[in-house]
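Risk register update: the risk of archive-format incompatibility is retired. Evidence:
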Amino acid sequence: MAKPPNILMLTVDALRADRTSLYGYDRPTTPTLERLAKDAIVCDSAFSLGTFTQSAAVQLFTSTAPLSYGGFDAGAVGRPDTLFTYFQVHGYRTTAISTLHWVNSFFGYGGGLDVEHQLFVPNTLVGVAVAMMRNSLTGYHEGDIGHDEMMAVVGPSIAKLFDDAEAYFTTRLERRDEHARDYPHSLFVNEEYDPVRIKRLIHRHREEFNTDPARYVESHLSKVPAPNEWLSGEWRLYRPLRRLAGEAAFRLVNRFVGVANPSLATARSARFRQYVDAGSLADKTIAELRDAPRDKPFLIWCHFMDTHVPYVSGHGRKWYRQTSEYLERLGYPPTNDAALVFRDPRAQQPEIQKQSAALYDAAVHWTDEQIGRIIDALDEMGLGEDTIVMVCGDHGEELGDHGDLGHYFLLYEHNLRIPMIFRRKGIEPKWLTGLNTIQDVGPTLANMVGIPPAAGWIGEPADSQNAVAREYVVMETFYGGNCLFEHRPLYFAARSHTHKLIWSEGIDPADGFSPDGPQLFDLTTDPGEQRNIHAAGHPALPQLEAAIARRMAEIPEVAAERIVAGFGETGRQAIAEIRDRAAE
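Archived output:
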């Protein structure tokens, strides 16, 4: 029996389709993707159904909806098999090269992994815990949530942080030499934390928490902390004295540099990048390809972060000296300040946003170049003929389109539409024009290797008749934070081939950008979603409103009265339809 094809999954953070030359962008940002498309299934209208990685990951790896299974807080825990688990069961050796603090064994993605590389700074573990608790703590401090309800969320989150941090630093200690060799320019290596001392610190915090959980919360979380104010604020001191002294000396010198050249000083301060850069990730992926056994198929996943704010292109500690080259290749002035977004990551001035968008394009081009190195190595090793290469974004990015930078939970096209391609040498290339979603990745890969999809996966093979026949897709989220269904407004969008309805129960207190009321856009005449044409009686509304109402009715945590309050008789019909379907 012939060995099934290998699978190489390359995902790129915050990669929006319309900034890639593969999808018609007028700057040559993605020549590698264009090359891959010659032997690929290319999805023209592929979407993430949420606008940030935590939400996108459950779609990609478990082919489920973000707000199903109690919401996205727990990651893959309690959901159907992940891609890693399912393909491992079918004989694949699975490897994850994860730069994501949301996608790892701490959130249920590790059960099917033979090899896991956790390449993120430890402070993000505290940031994740704070994000999971923020809305509960805020509601408690403001009197909207009772003590017991708050502790039901916060208590397990604290205990989980202790477990995750201890496991993380155990692995860091075991792989110290490997990390120093492979990622010498990354922040997570150059911080030089002492894992042994930090594990003792975690133990002390755990004992204090176990003795009196409520008192621990009142003592350490009397307000919502910044990630560096609790736990990680203490372990920052657990570094060699030479490292602390060296950092102090660097900052002193950099202050003088900043007097003469503020931009250079900002870039120098980011010499150790928070995310492992695309060049180092390409090197690691190539090494994994080289070391993969040849007697069984492999699935290797790698996630690139350079296109995430602050939009960095270039390799090593002096990456900022290379950015001008990538800008120049794309027709931008090479004098554009490479460190601009570090100073103001959510700039709202149009001119700064324009320059930031140029840096984003440069980061896309740099990442595409590194993906090209991986593809070249794959072919040089003789693996190209027998390997499916999947490339997609996890979600999109706003570049001033609606007044902001980043991907802050608003359900506009720029935050949702992503590139998605499946390359297999020798297949007939297809350019699909239907509505695909990131949930389709697992079913498509399964179909391409000749196995059925996993139980519970709701996506479809991208080129299947079911996918082609989709009339709409529904997007869903909270405005960041954790999934407190009873206390926070739900955000939804429904998109057909021609129109998009964006609807929410209200405006989240953290949301400073959404207008009041629903928004309807005609995407055929207004692809940038700048003209809200919502009006009672518009012919596009019945289908889109019913789609959102039916999706709300599928979520157990959403009470029927909320659906009726939002959509009236349409809501009642949706509830009845979903109940009848469940009874069949």
